[in-house]
Amino acid sequence: MKLIRTALPDVVIIEPAVYGDDRGWFMESFNEGRFEDELGKLGLPVPRRFVQDNHSCSRRGVLRGLHYQLAPRAQGKLVRVVQGAAFDVAVDIRKDSPTFGQWVGVELTADNQRQLWIPAGFAHGFVALEDNTHFLYKTTDTYSREHERSIRWDDPDIGVAWPLGGLTPVLAPKDAEAPLLSRADTF
Fold first, then answer.
1. Would you say residue 173 lies in a domain?
2. What single DSSP character describes residue 182?
3. Catalytic residues per the record (predicted)?
């Protein structure tokens, strides 16, 4: 397992070790001890334990986000794509952070097998780049409707460069109506 820092120092790309031969391939998709050791080597805190796994399937152009939960039910997320491809985004929404309002995007695909660690305090979203994209994520807290929040996917102050290729994104009503970061509840 190799962890790679992104432009947002607390958000890291995880490249698992993949072992292949003529039968196919094998990888360890998660190992708590190794994950914690690698975060420690980067000077990053160990998150709370993962308590919920989620799985979504989206067609090309579906954009989900930017989602987060407020404390005390804030969620860290470990995300990956197991079929298809997605452009995954994390936005720093910690008011006292030097990177508040900044974003990072990473392409996650079934082929590159990369994962992204997004700690609590960041909004998260993705757009499916292919039909039948299966997106899996582990969270450090369970879903809570009371603490769930969203920020507009196209907030001009954030300026995410979504790779839509001329497509109009397919949005849930709550995402289309989400507030701008300047009006959102943040950390």
1. yes
2. G
3. 67, 137
- CATH number for the domain harbouring residue 131: 2.60.120.10
Separation in Å, CA 159 to CA 62, 91, 111, 146: 18, 10, 28, 27
Question: Which residue out of 19, 67, 124, 143 is catalytically annotated?
Answer: 67
Cβ atoms of residues 26 and 19 within 8 Å: yes
Residue 149 lies in a domain: yes
For the segment 131-140, the average pLDDT, to the nearest whole number, is 98
Give tens-digit pLDDT for 82-112.
999 999 999 999 999 999 999 999 999 999 9
Assigned domain for 11 exists: no
Question: Catalytic site residue 124?
Answer: no
Q: Which of 55, 68, 134, 137 is catalytic?
A: 137
68 is catalytic: no
3-state helix, strand, coil in the chain (%, to 5): 10, 40, 50
37 in any annotated domain: no
Instruction: Quote the CA–CA distance of 150 and 105 in Å, as a whole number.
Output: 17
Domain that holds residue 123: 49-183
Q: Which two tokens stand for residue 33?
A: 């001890």
Give me the pLDDT at residue 21, please.
94
- CB atoms under 10 Å from CB of 40, counted, come to 11
Q: How many domains does the chain have?
A: 1
* Residue-by-residue DSSP string for 41-71: HTTPPPPPPP-EEEEEEE-TTBEEEEEEE-T
